[in-house]
Design goal:
With 97 residues, the protein is mostly helical. The termini are far apart. The chain is built from five helices and no strands. The protein is elongated, with a radius of gyration of 14 Å. It has one domain.
Length: 97
Amino acid sequence: MSPDSLTFQFAENNSNAISLTEGKTNDELEKLDDFSLLKMAREGAVEAFEVIYHRHYRRVYSLCLRMLNDASEADFIESSTVFEVNPLFRLGSIGSR
C-alpha cells in the first residue's frame, strides 16, 4: 500500500480529522519529534500522522520483509500495523506521558 493511499484512508477513518497544523509548513512538521507529532495526530491532525508514517514506514516494511521473506506479505503486515495503531491515537493510548 502506498503512503499516499494510507494517508487518505486515515483521513477517511478519522471522523475527527481537523487541521491542527494550520500555518505550519511540511518542513516545520518534519522538524518536530515523534512525541509532538503523536500528540497532534491523537487530536486529529492528519498532516502530523503523514509525517510519522513517512518517517517510519520503510523501517516497519523492512523488518516485516526480513521476518517474512515475502514482499506482498510484508506490505500487508506493514499496512495492517498502521491500522492497528490508528485507533490508539483517538483513545489516547499513545503519547500520553
